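S1.2 Input.
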Amino acid sequence: MPLWAQVEVLLRARIAAGEFEDRFPTDAELVGHYGVSRHTARAAIARLQAAGLVERERGRGSRLPRGAELEQSIAPFYTMAASISRQGLAEHSLVRRQAVERDADAAGRLGVPADTELVHIQRLRFAGDEPLALDDSWIVSDAGRPLLGVDLGRGSVYELMASEANVRVTSGTERIRAALPRPAERQLLALPRGEAVLVVERVAYSDERPVEYRQSMVRGDRVAFAAHWSRPSPPL
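S1.3 Output.
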């Protein structure tokens, strides 16, 4: 990796660890700490700035942004909890629903009869003090019931499904569309008038079996989904 990329990786890790909440180092401090040129330090900062992790102003230096856009990678497997933490923000959730219920639409997406009991978990997800997304998860009974007595205020539901129910999510399908939220949803998300949400509909599988249907309303003014790809090599 080039030197600027190495410095970028190290700074991302320190941001994720909450190291710069009070003050971000100056260019001169970065030069001294990492033993690189000023040009290299500025190149690393420019990459962090492009990713929305750092704000830079002439005469004032660099600082961590407040209310900045969070980048959510569309990777083969990802969780919002990990994405929030990786970008240096405190992740937590307000659990609004944690109960056994029936829902014909969710059951249909999971391929079970309409009157099947499912575990419904609704969480308002936060990045720092700011609401970021409203998640509604419908989980099949054997994977969801062990979560009824578990604290879901932090972390990933999938990690808890693996540890508490021995059900591991191995794949999924996802569809993302823009929508205008209803007034109650807009209020929960503290979303400015006129701003849209990104609705993410996901079916998660454990091997070949659907185990969770999730609909997430994500703030369109705070989250950007990003994909990283490479062109396949031509056949020999």
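S1.4 Remarks. The helical segments are 3-16, 27-34, 38-50, 80-86, 104-110, 141-144, 157-165, 183-189.
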